[in-house]
Each structure stands twice: as structure tokens, then as C-alpha cells.
Design goal:
Elements: H1 9-22, H2 27-30, H3 45-56, H4 72-98
């Protein structure tokens, strides 16, 4: 799988979701996996494993978008916020140019 770069969010996202789904870890990006029981570490071993997989699939230039995220969900949400808003902005820009 190609690392996440500036312009490949949609195919990268689909591939990562497929990989995580295959490994039973997709619930950590949408928070459908339950949180650890009271008294346990707030971040489970599986959540750490999922975060590691994502980090290893992000290019060095895009790593800045992961800064400050403590859970897989936070990491995924930060990427979506940056990448999908840029995509939406691009659509608006092209619409403006065409019309």
C-alpha cells in the first residue's frame, strides 16, 4: 500500500479501512470498539496496534497531521478533517472556475 501523501487520501483511506477490517480493528477508527474497562489503561493494546499500522502508512510529510492524537479515533478524525476539507475546498474551487 502506498503511503498517505498529499493527494491520495480517498484510495489510501479505502485500503486502510479494508486492511483494518480484515484484522478486526476497524472499530478503532470509528469508535465502535468498546473502551477498556474501568481501571485499565485508557488506550488498549489493540488501539495501539491500530495506531502503529496507520503511522507506518503515512508519509513523513503528512506525519504532522497526526500530532497530538492519543487514540486511533483521534488520529483518524484529524486526518479526515484535514484531507476531506481540502477535498471539499478543491471541489468548490473548481466549481467556481467552471461557472
Amino acid at each position: 500500500i502506498e503511503h498517505l501523501g498529499k493527494n491520495n487520501w480517498i484510495p489510501w483511506k479505502m485500503k486502510v479501512q479494508a486492511i483494518l477490517g480484515d484484522k478486526g480493528l476497524e472499530g478503532y477508527i470509528d469508535r465502535t470498539k468498546t473502551k477498556p474497562a474501568r481501571g485499565q489503561s485508557p488506550v488498549s493494546a489493540e488501539d495501539r496496534k491500530t495506531r502503529t499500522m496507520i503511522v507506518l502508512l503515512v508519509s513523513n510529510t503528512q506525519m504532522v497531521h497526526l500530532t497530538g492524537a492519543n487514540t486511533t479515533k483521534e488520529m483518524w478524525d484529524q486526518l479526515k478533517l484535514i484531507k476531506e476539507s481540502q477535498g471539499q475546498q478543491g471541489i468548490y474551487t473548481w466549481r467556481h472556475k467552471l461557472y
